[in-house]
Task: structure prediction
Amino acid sequence: MTGQFITFEGGEGAGKSTQIARLKAHLEKLRIPVFVTREPGGSPGAEVVRSVLLSGKARALGPDTEAMLFAAARADHMDSIILPALERDEWVLCDRFTDSTRVYQGEAGVDPAFIRELENLAVAGKKPDLTVLIDVPPNIGLARVSTRSATESASGAPDRFEKDDLEVQVRRQAMFLDLAKAEPDRIAVVDGSKSADTVEEAIWALVRERLGHRLEDATRVVPLIVPGTRDG
Ligand code: TYD
Result:
């Protein structure tokens, strides 16, 4: 199997979707098949759960139940979308995954042991090959989110979790960084306060450094450093 599973994590307004699109373009230049997906959601069943969670309708059930719903959505997404894509040798780029549950639901008071149990049920031992943590000071992230909301239609209104205040976002940022310290081989931190081009270059360098041998496997005849790929 040459497919790789890369997840993107970070607080609100970290710029994950922009960077996922840019990494996809780099990989596709090397003719690597890429599958982009997101959580919560990513499969028809999980998208239903997503709308319940992000509308805030499940909030009254409490953070433990929200954590279970995230895990239920993840289990379906994993089985019906992520694992089959990896088996087809695609590179899966996923916007948020288990680390978001550890941080968001952990910060909301859910017992970390319970979160790990749910995680095991949902992913059955499959971990991301690489997790890119785009670290952005929460005040910058929140400012980006509010600009986005102001310039988008009604669907761009802040969701259940984006509405949380700066203090909450600061605690989440610290928790994400703690996860990266605890699992440095899987989670790499990228400074997301820089320009989109600089962040893109940092992520592409990281992927070549951490998964270079996998890029070679996936491309076989294409050399790892192709002239022009660094700038394009
Ligand atoms: P989304 O619109 O995808 O936002 P973002 O661009 O920030 O990724 O909304 C996902 C929201 O759900 C986000 O605020 C984080 C939250 N979330 C959790 O609380 N737990 C989870 O396990 C996941 C995957 C997301």
